[in-house]
Write a structure and sequence with these properties.
single chain; alpha/beta; 5-stranded parallel beta sheet; 14 strands
């Protein structure tokens, strides 16, 4: 196990990230020993008190290390030593380029995050990841290639199907991203231009990730009154594209609809029972956040944000939108 997915609560993390030795001195058994913390080893067993010895970037020992030497020691008494948290849905890939210390993550014990969510990612995943190979951030970073970013580049923001040639180009871009290290394809089907893509387009692009065991992860088309249809679409894309599918931040919006996820989760159970690898993740809090553009009808956003603004300036269009 790497040192990066290690949490000795906030204080130990801050000390480690501030400059713990990369390797033990010749006379020391360990680079770092975390002393007397409550260890949660990820297996599900009860917490147990132990020392954790690190050698270079590896966890070398867990147990009583009181008689061992170390170049650096951390008193973890009263703290929990645990695998770092993985944020599987993050928009931090833009922020971490400017703030590579990622303190908002590290101070919460998050050591790995996945960006490129909701259909929005750098188009050139390889170049993006190469930057962090050259100058690593304080956290591990995984990326999805965004369907919206690919469609914007090839088709634009117009409400129309892609041509056969455009589909080939989009599939090529997705395949390149997978070869360059993407974990799969993300979509944001409430947003422009993702909302203009038919299901068949998404099936074909998800299938482009299948040779690389990609994951199709989706902010679905509608998290309100059409949630069930949206869930069925993700299941279809996963099944026909021969990939794993994930309903990201799954919920139902609108107090009058609360409880509706009983039906949507039943759809997931049914799909899994017949062998479709479809899963769900949720927020760890009772809130959600997005942009105001989802309040506008699709026709009003045909052509992108500038076109929406132009329609809002027209009295007749504005009245129709209202």
């Amino acid at each position: 196990m790497s040192i990066r997915p290690l949490l000795a609560a906030a204080t130990a993390l801050v000390v480690l990230s501030a400059g713990a030795p990369d390797a033990a001195r010749a006379q020391d058994a360990y680079s770092v020993i975390l002393e007397g913390g409550l260890v949660a080893d990820g297996s599900g067993r009860a917490l147990f008190r132990a020392d954790v010895g690190l050698r270079g970037d590896r966890i070398a020992a867990v147990g009583d290390l009181s008689g061992e030497t170390a170049a650096f020691r951390v008193d973890a008494a009263g703290l929990v030593v645990a695998p770092g948290f993985i944020d599987i849905h993050s928009h931090g890939d833009s922020g971490v380029t400017d703030r590579p210390l990622a303190e908002s993550y590290v101070r919460q014990g998050v050591t790995t995050f996945f960006g490129g969510q909701d259909g929005d990612s750098p188009l050139d995943i390889g170049a993006f990841l190469a930057r962090f190979d050259a100058e690593p951030a304080a956290v591990n970073l995984g990326m999805f290639v965004g369907h919206g970013s690919v469609r914007e580049h090839v088709v634009g923001s117009d409400d129309r199907p892609a041509t056969d040639e455009e589909m080939e180009e989009m599939a090529s871009l997705v395949g390149r991203a997978m070869r360059d290290g993407a974990f799969g394809l993300s979509s944001g089907l409430e947003y422009v231009p993702g909302r203009f893509a038919p299901t068949e387009e998404l099936v074909l692009l998800a299938a482009a990730t299948a040779p690389y065991r990609g994951l199709y992860i989706s902010h679905v088309r509608d998290e309100g009154g059409h949630l069930e249809e949206s869930v069925r679409e993700v299941i279809r894309i996963a099944e026909e594209g021969h990939v794993a599918g994930q309903l990201t931040h799954h919920k139902i919006i609108g107090k009058d609809r609360w409880g509706g996820t009983v039906q949507s989760l039943a759809l997931v159970d049914e799909a899994r029972a017949r062998g479709v690898d479809v899963t769900v993740d949720v927020y760890p809090y009772t809130a959600s956040s997005t942009g105001m553009t989802i309040l506008f009808p699709a026709w009003a956003q045909d052509g992108g944000f500038a076109a929406l603004q132009e329609r809002l300036r027209d009295p007749a269009d504005r009245a129709r939108i209202r």
